[in-house]
Amino acid sequence: MNTLFDKIWDAHVVTTVEDGPTQLYIDRLYCHEVTSPQAFAGLRARGIGCLRPEKIICMPDHNTPTHDQDKPIEDEVSKTQVDTLTKNAADFGLTHYGMMHPKNGIIHVVGPERGLTLPGMTIVCGDSHTSTHGAMGAVAFGIGTSEVEMVLASQCILQSKPQTMRITIDGKLGKGVTAKDVALYIIAKMTTSGATGYFVEYAGEAIRSLSMEGRLTLCNLSIEMGARGGMIAPDETTFAYIRGRENAPAGDDWDTALAYWKTLKSDEDAVFDCEVTFCAEEIEPMITYGTNPGMGMGITQHIPTTEQMSEAGKTSFIKSLEYMGFAPGESLLGKKIDYVFIGSCTNGRIEDFRDFASIVKGKQKADHVVAWIVPGSWEVDRQLREEGLDALFIEAGFEIRQPGCSACLAMNDDKIPAGKYAVSTSNRNFEGRQGPGARTLLASPLVAAAAAVTGVITDPRTFL
Amino acid sequence: MKTKFNILTSTCVPLPLENVDTDQIIPARFLKATTKEGFGENLFRDWRYDKQGHKIESFVLNDPTYGGQILVAGKNFGSGSSREHAAWAIADYGFRVVVSSFFADIHKNNELNNFVLPVVVTEGFLAELFESIAQNPKMEVEVNLPAQTITNKATGKSESFEINSYKKLCLENGLDDIDFLLSNKDKITAWENASK
Ligand code: SF4
Question: Domains (ranges, CATH) in chain B?
Answer without folding.
Answer: 7-195 (3.20.19.10)
